[in-house]
Amino acid sequence: MSIITDAHTHTNFSGDARDDMSEMCRQAIAKGLNCICFTDHLDLNPTDESYGCYDYDRYSAAIDRVRAEYEGRIRVLKGIEFSEPHIFRREYEELLGKEFDLVMVGIHYVRLGVGLHWFEDDRSFREYAAHDLFRHYYEELLQVVKLGGFDVLAHFDNPKRYLQGSGPETELIDEIVHELVGKDLVPEINTSPLRRGCRESAPDADILQRYVDAGGTRVTIGSDAHSSKEIAADFDHAQKLVNCYQLQPGIFRGRQFIAI
Questions:
Q1: In angstroms, rounded to a whole number, what is the distance separating the alpha carbons of residues 64 and 234?
Q2: What's the burial of 184, exposed, middle or buried (CB within 10 Å: 0-12/13-18/19+)?
Q3: Domains and CATH numbers, the chain
Q4: DSSP, residue by residue, the chain
Q5: Mean pLDDT score of the chain
Q6: Is the peptide bond before 159 cis (omega within 30 degrees of 0)?
């Protein structure tokens, strides 16, 4: 494995993750990484497990402590994953004024009041999802990318974690990738769907090809780990995609892309 940084990880500062920062660092070092970026959730949907967990001062202090603890052994970057910035615009603008290495955004809920993760537990959503979910999701994702202001777009085709494929909305996908390239925003290769029985990362190969065709070259690589054992999971798959599409992987430090 030649990818030596995990740019999307969660600690017990997220409501759906278990391990503290120190344990995450220990496991990252054991797996041969020289850099880890913590991207804990800032979720403002009151039905989300991470609702109310975000505390910038506590989070920043914890990162300062772990940086000191592991100085010289691993670089620790401070990121955040903000959900639905097109809905929570005031809070998003406030966040952008804070000090982070990386601001990542994504969608976990669509405006119809549906949480994407609900499809994992409740099969009654499946028929609805097959017809409408991807369209609604990509329509909102396009709004997010047009809003801009962030560094990395998380899990481009996120519904695939719970449903198969990346959806048929190719025109919307093309609009999104062109907006990403035009605004100099970076998608990630998120390997978490592979842990859920999918054969593809998020995004899949088709979307990456569309991104490259639109002129995109840069990506970050993230496991979306919610426990220390998931750090760098399936990075061999991500490496193959990087090689296949001749992408430049990197990290963000001080909101600036650094090739690795």
A1: 29
A2: exposed
A3: 5-259 (3.20.20.140)
A4: ----EEEEE--TTSTT----HHHHHHHHHHTT-SEEEEEEEE---TTSTTTTT--HHHHHHHHHHHHHHTTTT-EEEEEEEEE-TTTSHHHHHHHHTS--SEEEEE-SEETTTEETTHHHH-GGGHHHIIIIIHHHHHHHHHHHHHH---SEE--TTGGGGTSSSS-S-HHHHHHHHHHHHHTT-EEEEE-GGGGGT-SS-BS-HHHHHHHHHTT--EEEEE--BSSGGGTTTTHHHHHHHHHHTT-EEEEEETTEEEE-
A5: 91
A6: no
Measure CA 228 to chain center: 17
Closest CA to 231 of 25, 20, 13: 25
Q: Which residue has the tokens 């405006």?
A: 111
Q: What is the pLDDT of residues 213-255, one digit of tens each?
A: 999 999 999 999 999 999 999 999 999 999 999 999 999 999 9
Q: How far apart are CA 87 and CA 160, in angstroms?
A: 22
pTM of the model: 0.92
d(CA 23, CA 69): 11
| Structure tokens that stand for 97 in this block | 């004024």
| Whether the predicted pLDDT of 50 surpasses 90 | no
Return the residue matching tokens 């650094």. 258
Stated length of the chain: 260
Q: 77, 87 in Cβ contact below 8 A? A: no
Residue 183 one-letter amino acid:
K
